[in-house]
Every structure is written in C-alpha cells, then in structure tokens.
TrEMBL record:
Pfam families: ALIX_LYPXL_bnd, BRO1. SMART domains: BRO1. CDD domains: BRO1_ScRim20-like (cd09241). It comes from Suillus fuscotomentosus. Residues 457-480, 720-779 are annotated as: Disordered. Residues 3-386 form the BRO1 domain. InterPro entries: ALIX_V_dom, BRO1_dom, BRO1_sf. Belongs to the palA/RIM20 family. This is BRO1-like domain-containing protein.
Length: 779
C-alpha cells in the first residue's frame, strides 16, 4: 500500500452541448447556429476526452487542450447559456448525487481539478525506489500543486459570482483546494528528501528538507480544518490522520538528523535534546497512525524511524550519564503543565480562552464596521451621486416628456404609489415628532447627570465650611466628567442643527411631496400634456430620436449597474449574517494549546483570512464605480447633443419641468425619510450612552459623599480625643494625631481616580453636520 495520498477524479456526466449552444446562438446572437456546427461538435468531442477519468500521461495534453478551449469559449459566451454540467464530489461514493450547475465556469473549474488529480495519480504510480522515479514523481506532484494554485487564483473567483454559496461544490471551495495544493507540495518535497537521503547528503541539509516536508503537511492540515464541515466529512476517515502522522513523522526525522549533526560536532547535550524531541514526535505519529488506520506503509516508515531514534537516544543518554554530563534536566511538569494536573482537573478547562473570545468579538466588530464603511456607505454615496447628476440634467423627465407626450410615466406612478401607501406626509410628521421627543429626552438625561455633579459640589462646599478636608474640591475632582459632558452636549447641539435642517427641508417640500399622494387622475391633471411637433427639419427630428434612444439605453445601463450594486450589498449582508468565525478560532486555539496564555493577536491570521471573503464585494463596488463613471460621462455628452438637436417646444418644456419637479419631490422624500431613520437610531443609541454616563456620575458622587462623611466623623473623634486629653494628667505628652484617624484616611482615599476604567462609558463620535440642501449629509 503506498505511503502517499492521491486526488480522485471528479466523475462527470453527459450534457446536451449541441442543443443548448444552438438555442443560445439562435436566441441571443445575430448569428445562425448552423455557422458553428463544427465548433459545437469540436466542443463536444473535446469534452468527451478532456474531462478526466483515465490514468495515462497522454491524457494530460487532451485535458490542457480542453481547458484552453473553455477559456476562449468563456470569452465568447456567458457562463450561463442554460447548459447544465454535472459532477460528483471527488471523494463521494459513485452512488451519491452529483452537483448540477448551469455554468461553463463550473465546467472549467472541474476540468482543472481533474487535471490536478491526473498529475497526482501519475506521481503515485511512479516507482519511487529509483532516482528517476523519484524525480518524475516530484515533478508530477509539483504540476498538481501548480494546477491547484491556478484553480484557486483563476477559476474559483470567476465561479463565485455565478453560483450561490450554498450551491458551490464543497471540493471546489478555497480552503479545500488550498489543502490539496499544500499536500501535493508536501509529497513533492518528500520525494526530494528521499533523494537527498539516498545520495547521502549532509545531515544538516537533510534535516532542513525534512522540516520543510513537516511544515507543508501541517499547512495542508490547517487548511482542511478551515474548510467547510461537509468538505471535511467527505474525505476518507484516514485522510486527516495521515496528514497529522506525516507532520509529526518528518518533524521527528528533522530533529533526528539535527541530533546526528550535533553528535558529529561533539555537542552531546544538544544531541540528547534533539533525540528526545524526535522520540516524542515519532511516538505521536505512530500512535495516531495505529489508532486511525493509516496505510501500513506509513506506519512502517514511522516505526522504523522510532526504533532508530530510541536506539540512538539510549546510547546518547548512557554515554552522557557515564562521561559527559552536559545536559540540564528540566522537570517535565514545567514544559508540559497538563502532565502535572491532568486534563480533568484543569480549572476552567472547558472555557474558551479570553484571547480567543476577544478575537471573536474584535472580528465581529470589525466585520460590522467593514460592511458599513467599505460596502454599504460607499454604495449609498454612489447612488446619491448618480441621482444628483441625473437631477441636474433633468433626466429622465426630459426623456419621458418626449416619449410620452400625454399621461404619466410608469416610473412616476410607482413613486407616487409608494408615498401614497406609506402615507408619506403623515409618516414624516410622526418621525419629526419622535426625533424631537427623543432629543429632549437625551438632553434631559445629560442635565440630570450634571444636577448630580452640582449637588455633590454644593455638599462638598458645605462640608468644607464645617471641616477642613485634605482632598481636591469638586470643580477640580470632577473635571474629566465635566469635559465628557461638554463633549456629549456638543454632539447633541450638532444633532439638533441637523434635525433643524431636515425640518426646514420638509417645510420647503411638504406641498410638493403631498401632491404625490393624489390619485392617478388628479396627479395627471398637474402635468401639462404635449404633442411632438412634426414640423421642422427632418434631420433634426431624426437626430433627436437617435439621441433619445441612446440616452434611454444609457439610463437602462445605469439601472443595471445600480441593481447589481444593490444585489452585491444584499449578498454581503447575508454573508455577514451567516459569517461565524468561532469554529475557525477554536481550531486555531486547538493548535496553540502548547501556548497556555493566548491573546487576540495570535488569531490575527485567522481574522485576516476571513476578512478576505469580503474583498470580492469591495472589488465589485470598485468595478461598479468605474462603470458608473463611464456611463454618467456618456449620459452627459449624449444629453448635451439631445438638447441641442431637439426643437424647444414650450409645451414639452413645461411638461419636462413638471415631471422633474415631481421626481425631485420624491427624491427629497426618500432623503428626508433616510435622515429621520438615522436620527431615531442616533438618539436611541445616545440614550443608552448617556444613561451609563449618568450612572457613572451617580457612583462617583456617592463615593465622594461617603468620603466627606468619614472626614466629618474623623474630625468629631479628634475633638473628643482633645477634650479627654485636657482632663488627663500632663505627665506624658499626648500625640495630636490619632492612629485611628490616620488609618481611616488611608482607607477613604481608595476612590478610583477619574482616569480609572471604573468611570469609563461608551463613547460616540459626533454625527456629521448636514450641509444645506443639495449636499445634505446623513447623520
């Protein structure tokens, strides 16, 4: 039985390439499908021989040729031409159900996977007892790794946009493919290590090669643990134990070779330390392999190494005990605390470490910020920018006035229906009242907090008139709380200014927005009708129609960009909702068990890898921005030509202005609603923050009051001591400082300083001030 793992082929099934391709060409192109009969037949023939399933070196060129053709096919056809491709999971049983997707990109990814599988199987079939066989096997494994790397960087990203996350085959996910890539590299490196051993290279070099093999197997192991649960469960039961065994085996082999190197350099104590590490890792490898039923060839390899290491370790310890005495002995319980107390007795043994918990919390907070700041807000800004430009160009009103000289455009009817169903004016009035009520409420909380501080200050002044106190006066002691209060009050003032801008905007546009609540007949009566004048030069009329059609096409393209952007936001939000980093943090924590103390910093690599999932959404926004800029630039130039070419009919002009005014009223309605939604959220959040601040003021004032009472009690006690002393004999001097007073004063000075975390409350950045009218910002 071989001691290497191979990648099985993804089984595929026949698909109706001729029918689907002919239908697509017939219905979506200007060409006739008969013109491409040869191409369609060639595609079908290439697929029959290029999708894998046969172990022979000649099949490599067929598969590479088919993949190359798929690249060019995807340049000519979209991924979805209603042609279904079916592939089974590489590690599923033949009787399991395949995954069927309408995506040529899926076909390409599966073909690449099978090319990598072919290379891996060719490598495993080589005779590695000879040097030539080892070289060929290493080259094949490197080719397999290269194909998997190419699959990961080139094919998988293009598969994602056309396949939902839940429908993506688990063996074509990033983590799964990367695990196979690292496995192929590990086995290629193992062949190189075997060559070095056969050629009697220096022990130091062989040790480095073995360490690299161990590292690659471990990287493959980590990647598969990060893969989805269904991907891991599809693997053979001995697959992961095989990787663990190889990792420990080659780490032991590396330490053994380093030990031999230390012996040759007469560093006998270092030799023993190396051999002890090698023995421990070899035992781990052997135990895992035996317990999990790893291939017998792997078990034999590990057992042979363990026997050699134990033999050399016994010799080295015997020599050292008798002759050298160069090694210090660290009690085992220091290096391995678990060995002292056992797993069952560890305090909080079942609890997730604080470092891991903090890493999860930090990731969730950063994920929320990333979604809002890098995706949602930029997308909203792009939409606002497009709306602003279209409004300045009087679009689409001018176009709709020309296209529909009578009646109302469907887009305007939809907007009016939205406001009518929402009871827009009433909704805005209710929101404005709610915002004003919440504004007064949060300001009242802040005033109550200041009343608490003022009351403490008055109490402090009264206490000072009765008894001198060795502590700062209130106006100094509460300075940090007062500064914090001023900062909060500034935020509320800025928010009130923003509220006033929204209110003034509503007062300015209330009548126009209310007009949109009318029924269709009443609304149509507000918009003048027009008829297109048929007089004038034919050339001008023709040019106007050409520019109008071009403009309409550009506006539809802009709508497509916006719909794509909205869909991208929804997908990003769904990803964030289902995104749970906890399992991967737990897996990483398990690998860090030897580090008893763990901090959140140790999981930064895990967080970075997880955040990479959102790069495609940010990239999608960037691409959408470029497309939008190009389309808007074309709209501006085409609109200029449209205005210059058409007749300035007064009736059309009046209709354009009426339509534009109503469209602008709808835009202001949406903006006012958005501003008020943000205002309600702001004040609700602020209420919680200021309630915490008020409680902090109450706790601080209470501590100051208790301290003042202690000072008064101490003063009364001192007066009684002096009165008693005057009645006593004057034979011995009496101390004027009571020990009780001194001790109590030390105790009462334990109030936390205002810089202490005890007084910390949640901070909130001030809301951006809304600028007037056209450049209104959102809270």
């Amino acid at each position: 039985m071989p001691n290497h793992l191979t990648i099985p082929f993804k089984k595929t099934y026949s698909c109706p390439i001729p029918v689907a391709t002919r239908d697509y060409i017939q219905n979506h192109t200007e060409d006739h499908p008969d013109a491409y009969i040869g191409d369609i037949n060639q595609w079908k023939a290439l697929r029959d021989i290029g999708t894998g399933g046969v172990l022979h070196a000649d099949r490599i060129n067929f598969a590479l040729n088919y993949h190359a053709q798929l690249v060019f096919i995807l340049a000519k056809l979209p991924p979805d031409i209603n042609l279904e491709f079916s592939y089974g999971h590489a590690f599923d049983s033949p009787s399991s159900f395949p995954v069927t997707l309408r995506s040529i990109a899926f076909e390409r990814a599966a073909v690449l996977f099978n090319i990598a599988a072919l290379y891996s199987q060719l490598a495993a079939s080589e005779d590695r007892s000879s040097q030539d066989g080892l070289k060929r096997a290493s080259a094949y494994y490197q080719n397999a790794a290269g194909v998997l790397a190419f699959l990961s960087e080139s094919a998988l990203p293009k598969l994602g946009p056309f396949v939902d996350l839940e429908n993506t085959p688990s063996d074509l996910t990033e983590d799964f493919v990367k695990s196979l890539e690292w496995l192929m590299l590990a086995q290629a490196q193992e062949c190189v290590w075997q060559l070095a051993v056969a050629d009697h290279y220096k022990n130091s070099l062989i040790a480095k090669l073995a360490a690299k093999v161990s590292s690659l197997y471990n990287t493959s192991l980590l990647s598969i643990r990060l893969a989805a649960a269904d991907a891991r469960s599809a693997l053979p039961p001995n697959w992961i134990p095989h990787l663990e065994t190889k990792h420990y085996h080659f780490n032991a082999a590396s330490q053994y070779r380093k030990g031999v190197d230390e012996l040759e350099a007469s560093r006998y104590g270092d030799e023993i330390r190396r051999l002890m590490i090698a023995e421990a890792d070899a035992k781990k490898a052997f135990n895992i392999a035996k317990r999990a039923g790893v291939a017998q060839a792997v078990i034999s390899d590990v057992k042979s190494l363990l026997d050699v290491v134990q033999k050399d370790l016994s010799r080295a310890e015997r020599d050292n005990d008798l002759i050298y005495h160069q090694n210090s002995i660290i009690p085992p319980g220091l290096r391995d605390p678990r060995s002292v107390i056992g797993d069952d007795s560890i305090i909080f043994g079942e609890m997730l470490g604080w470092g891991a918990r903090e890493a999860i919390n930090i990731y969730n907070d950063n994920k929320k910020n990333l979604l809002q700041e890098k995706i949602v807000e930029p997308a909203q800004n792009l939409n606002d920018e497009a709306d602003k430009i279209l409004q300045s160009l009087n679009l689409p009103s001018s176009l709709e006035a020309l296209e529909r000289p009578v009646g109302l455009p469907p887009s305007l009817l939809r907007k009016a229906e939205e406001i009518r169903l929402d009871q827009g004016p009433t909704k805005i009035d209710v929101y404005l009242d709610d915002v004003q009520r919440l504004s007064r409420h949060v300001l009242g909380i802040l005033d109550e907090a200041m009343d608490i501080l003022d009351s403490e200050a008055s109490e402090d002044e009264a206490a000072r008139r009765e008894t001198p106190m060795n502590r700062p006066p209130s106006h100094e002691a509460n300075q940090e709380l007062v500064i914090k209060q001023q900062r909060y009050r500034t935020i509320l003032i800025q928010a009130a200014e923003s509220d006033e801008l929204v209110r003034r905007k509503w007062e300015e546009w209330e009548d126009q927005i209310s007009e949109l609540t009318r029924n269709e007949d009443e609304l149509e009566a507000l918009v003048p009708s027009s008829t297109v004048s048929m007089t004038g030069k034919a050339v001008s009329t023709s040019q106007t129609q050409i520019h109008a059609r071009t403009l309409r096409g550009l506006l539809e393209s802009l709508d497509d960009v916006r719909r794509t952007r909205d869909d991208l936001i929804v997908r990003a939000q769904r990803r964030a909702e289902s995104d749970d980093i906890r399992p991967k943090v737990l897996a990483a924590a398990a690998n860090l068990e030897h580090k008893i103390e763990m901090s959140a910093v140790m999981f930064e690599d895990v967080s970075d890898n997880e955040f990479a999932k959102y790069d495609k959404f940010i990239q999608g926004l960037t691409e959408g921005r470029k497309k939008q800029e190009e389309i808007l630039s074309s709209i501006k130039s085409t609109n200029d030509a449209f205005i210059q070419s058409r007749k300035q009919d007064p009736a059309i002009k009046d209709r354009e202005q009426a339509l534009q005014f109503l469209d602008l009223a709808y835009s202001h309605y949406r903006e006012i609603i958005r501003n008020l939604d943000e205002g309600l959220k702001f004040y609700n959040d602020m209420a919680g923050i200021l309630t915490n601040f008020k409680e902090a003021c109450k706790i601080w004032s209470g501590a100051r009051s208790r301290e003042a009472r202690l000072h008064r009690n101490m003063a009364s006690l001192s007066i009684r001591d002096r009165d008693n002393a005057s009645d006593e004999s004057h034979e011995a001097p009496v101390s004027t400082t009571s020990p009780l007073r001194t001790g109590t004063r030390k105790q009462t000075t334990g109030i936390p300083t205002l810089s202490s975390a005890d007084w910390e409350v949640q901070e909130l950045a001030p809301p951006p001030i809304k600028r007037a009218e056209k450049t209104t910002k959102h809270r």
